[in-house]
Amino acid sequence: MESDWYIWFLLVLSVAGIIYWYRHKKDGTEFIQVLVQYLKRPHGYHQLHVSEVPTKYIQLYQAFQYFIATLPIPSDKDKLTGFSNRLGLKSKFMSLMPLTQGTLVLIDVYRFRFVNDLFGFSVGDKLLLSLSKRLTALEEDVTFLARMNEDEFLLYFDCAQTEETLFSIRHQLQAPFEIDDTPITVQIQMGYLDLKQHHTDVSQLLRRLDLALIKAKQDKYFFASYVKDDDVSQHRQLSIINRLPKALASGELYMVYQPKFTISDGRCVQVEALMRWEHPQLGVLSPAEFIPLVECAGMIQVVSQWALDQVISQQAKWQLSGLHLQVAVNLSTQDLISGTLCDDIQAKLHRHKVDASALSIEITESTLMGDMDIAVQTINKLKQVGVDVAIDDFGTGHSSLAYLKNFPVDEVKIDKAFIDDLLVDSRALHIMKCSIELAKGLAFKVTVEGVETEEIYLALMNMGVDKIQGDLFAKPMSAQKLEDCWGLLQQSRLPRIS
C-alpha cells in the first residue's frame, strides 16, 4: 500500500538529512520534491530524489522534528537529591574503575512505598531528602554516591572493616527522622561487594549488587555480599518467579492441610493450610524457598489471594460434607498493610457462604513489629468481622514484651526452634515455660508446632499448652485425605497418621 511505503520513507527521514521544496504541475496541482541525503561517503553524501511526496507526510515529518527538538535533554543528576543518577554513573565509574580495593554498597529503604501511601508523596520526598543529607554526612569516608531509583542509593567506601562500617551506616540511617512534626523510622537493607574480587564492567557490578541486595531481603539480613554461586542461584530464582503465573493457573501450586489437636482430649479442632509447588523442572519446592522470592518480586498479595480462595472454597465443600473445622492461613507483611485485606476476606467468605469464625489468620511476630500501628488496625478489623488471628513463630521475632499487650490476637504459636533442645538443655526448658506463662498471662491460647517425638509430646503435657501440631500425629495431607481420615481425627486420643 502507498501509505505503508510513506511510513518507511518517514523512518528514513528520521535518520537522514532532507531538502524539500514545493512545485506545481502544469494543471496547477501542488506537490513536493524531496532530496534525501542518507549516507555519508568519503567524497560526500549519497543522494536520492523522490518526487511527488504528499504534503501530509511532509507535515508529519515536520511535526516529528519539532517533537524531537522540544524533548528535554536527559540530566545525569537526580533532581531531588543532587546525586548522580543512572545516567551519571558511567563517568563516576570511569574514575572508580582504576581502584583495586574498596566496597560498593547498594542501599535499599525497605518499604519506602508504604511511606508514600500512608503520608503522601510530599512527605516521601522530604524523607528522601533528609536521608540523602545523612548519606553525605556519614561518619565514614564515603567517596561515591548515586540515587539508583526511588528508594535505592549507591555508595563507595574504602575501609578494611567492611561489616563494622556497614553496621555503622545502618545505625546512622535508621535513627528516626522528624518530617512535618511526625517521627518516621525507616528500615535499611544493603547488598555489597568487594572490588578486589570483581574486576568487570559497570553493568555486571550493578547486577551483582542487585543479587546481593535480593539475598539480604530474602534472608531478612541487614546486609549480604555477592558470591559467585549467586549467579547459579539467580538462574534458579528467575525460573521460579517466571513460572509463577502459569503455576497458579495450571495447578502446580496446591494446598495441603496439617491438623492441630487439643492436648487435653486429642481431638482435631483446626488445620493449618500449607502451600506446595510441584515445579515441572525443579521438582517439589519448599515454601521456605519460593515465598521469599514471591515477596521480593512484589507478587505475594496475588499468591495470598489465591491461597485464601483455595482455602475458603475448600471449606465450603467440607461444610456440604458435614465437616466443620477452622482453617488457619499464613499471610505476609504486605498483605497486612495492603489496606484491603479485611474487605477481600469478607468478599470471599460471602461468595462461598462460609462463616468468618471458620477462618484464622497467622502472622509472624516480626511482621507485626514491622508496621505496628497498621498491624493493630488490620487485626482489629479482622476481629470485628469474626476472623481469629494468631501470632506465628512466637518468640523468634524482635518484639518488645511491652508491645505484646497491644496485639488483639487470640493465639500464639511457639516455634519449633524452642522445642528442639527441650529435653537436653535446661535453659531451653525454662524459656519454653516462661513463654507459655507469658502468653497465658496475656489471655492467649498456646499452640506448639513441630512436635515430632513422643518424648517432646510428654514433656509438653503439663506445661499449659492448648494445642499441638506436628508430624508425630499427622503430616500435611490433601483435602481429600483429611476428609477420609476425619473420623480418626475426631477420636478422643491423639492419632498417628503418616
Structure at a glance:
This protein has 498 residues and is an alpha/beta fold. The protein is built from 19 helices and 19 strands.
Question: How does this structure look, described?
Answer:
The protein has three domains: 2-70, no CATH class; 86-227, Reverse transcriptase/Diguanylate cyclase domain (Alpha-Beta Plaits, 2-Layer Sandwich), CATH 3.30.70; 241-489, EAL domain (TIM Barrel, Alpha-Beta Barrel). The chain is built from 19 helices and 19 strands. It has helices at residues 2-15, 55-70, 89-96, 112-119, 121-136, 162-174, 202-219, 229-250, 287-296, 300-320, 333-336, 341-352, 365-370, 372-385, 401-404, 426-441, 454-460, 479-484, 486-489; strands spanning 17-24, 30-41, 44-53, 103-110, 142-149, 152-157, 177-179, 182-184, 187-194, 223-225, 253-262, 268-279, 283-285, 326-330, 359-364, 388-394, 411-414, 445-449, 467-469. A hairpin with a 2-residue loop joins strand 2 (30-41) and strand 3 (44-53). Pfam families: EAL, GGDEF. InterPro entries: Cyclic-di-GMP_PDE-like, EAL_dom, EAL_sf, GGDEF_dom, Nucleotide_cyclase, Rev_trsase/Diguanyl_cyclase.
Descriptive terms for the model:
single chain; 498 residues; alpha/beta; Alpha-Beta Plaits; TIM Barrel; eight-stranded mixed barrel; five-stranded mixed sheet; 19 strands; 25% strand; disordered N terminus
Q: Can you tell me the CATH class of the largest domain?
A: Alpha Beta
The N- to C-terminal Cα distance equals 71 Å
> Radius of gyration, rounded?
31 Å
Strand proportion: 15-25%
User: Which of globular, elongated, flat, extended, rod-shaped describes the shape?
Assistant: globular
GO molecular function: cyclic-guanylate-specific phosphodiesterase activity
Keywords: Membrane, Transmembrane, Transmembrane helix
Protein name: GGDEF domain-containing protein
